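not sure who needs this but someone in the group chat was asking about Sulfite reductase from Roseovarius halotolerans so here u go. i didnt clean anything up, its just raw.
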Amino acid sequence: MPRAFTPKVVTANALIEGDVVYLTADDRWTRDLAQAEIITDEAHAQLRQLMAEAQPDQVVGVYLADVTAGTNGPEPTHFREDFRRSGPSNYRHGKQAELSDV
């Protein structure tokens, strides 16, 4: 029996900066997971992933990540995705420095 499709977002890394980015419903890349398009249909998810992979001048490492719908938009369901959105782990700078101030 096939597994039920779980909601996804299209994610990648920005080509120049390397930041984690997410595809929005209006075909923009955002660094804010809350703005990402939640995809609930498997065929649509595959099309969105193909569209994103066709942008090698903007992003690398495109894939679909599992999410759940939260009160402020998509929330990651796996530790890896939660960790990715907080930035590099080798020292505090950028997003990690901002999060530590909270």
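also The radius of gyration is 14 Å. if thats useful
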